[in-house]
Design brief:
Strand 1, helix 5 and strand 2 form a beta-alpha-beta unit. The protein is α/β, with parallel strands linked by helices. Helices cover about 40% and strands about 20% of the residues. The protein has a seven-stranded mixed β-sheet, with helices on one face. The longest helix is centred in the N-terminal third of the chain and has 29 residues.
Length: about 240
């Protein structure tokens, strides 16, 4: 019991320190743009008395048992900058972030990549707060959709980012099925597992694998592209279902 309490306390201290270090690095690297600095400061202040982790946990507790998301996590902005360069995301792209949370990454991409950005998030609290900030700063190439990621209009995307670590294994046949509406050439970036590992061996081709820093350490991130494949599969027909 004592060992568990010590480990829990140590992990709490680690995450708290990591968050402060990450924030300081964000200030040094990205607050040179006053527009983003003001946006990020306002976004951070709206969660001063209610952490995103707690809001996510509370919301998911009241969702159906088949809800696809299991926990909350955010991608460090400096890590996503590396991914944008690796995936060659440009101002001509339409980036979809599936599970956008507070919207911090979406606000960053809007300012620094200057592409069209759609943040897809099911939690109404996250969406409402992000929408208020978006309207305040009049960001016309940025939008937030309150919907399940499985129902997002993915045919509009040229790039999709999915923080896959936050989703249950049984959800992946449904996620793979939803990704089939993408157009050939669409890049899909997934964290921790490639789409082929989750069962899709025909619709996407792996371009690059990168090791990127997250709060728990370095994780593999896979950049894949949609191939010109006209056949579709249902979730029940997903290849290698025993792996999901």
């Amino acid at each position: 019991m004592v060992i568990k309490l010590v480990k829990s306390f140590a992990m709490g201290v680690y995450y708290h320190v990591w968050e402060w270090v990450d924030y300081l690095l964000t200030v040094l690297l990205f607050y040179r743009k006053p527009g983003f600095a003001l946006t990020d400061l306002l976004l951070q202040s709206t969660y001063f008395f209610s952490s995103a982790d707690r809001l996510c946990f509370t919301y998911l507790q009241h969702q159906p048992e088949d809800q696809v998301q299991i926990w909350y996590g955010e991608t460090p902005l400096r890590s996503f900058k590396t991914l944008c360069q690796a995936a060659q995301i440009s101002s001509e792209d339409h980036l979809f972030e599936l599970g956008s949370g507070r919207g911090r990454l979406a606000f960053w991409a809007d300012r620094f990549v200057q592409c069209t950005v759609t943040g897809v998030e099911i939690n109404p609290i996250f969406i409402a707060r992000a929408q208020r900030i978006k309207r305040l700063f009049r960001r016309h190439k940025l939008r937030f959709l309150q919907t399940n990621i499985l129902d997002a209009p993915l045919a509009e995307a040229t790039v999709i980012y999915l923080y896959g670590t936050a989703f249950e294994k049984p959800a992946w046949p449904r996620i793979l099925h939803a990704l089939q509406q993408t157009r050939p050439g669409t890049r899909v970036i997934t964290v921790s597992k490639s789409l082929a590992e989750w069962g899709d061996t025909g619709h996407f081709a792996l371009i690059h694998t990168h090791w990127i820093s997250y709060v728990w350490g370095k994780a593999p991130v896979y950049i894949q592209t949609r191939v010109d494949h006209h056949d579709t599969i249902t979730p029940a027909q997903c290849p290698n279902p025993e792996r999901l």
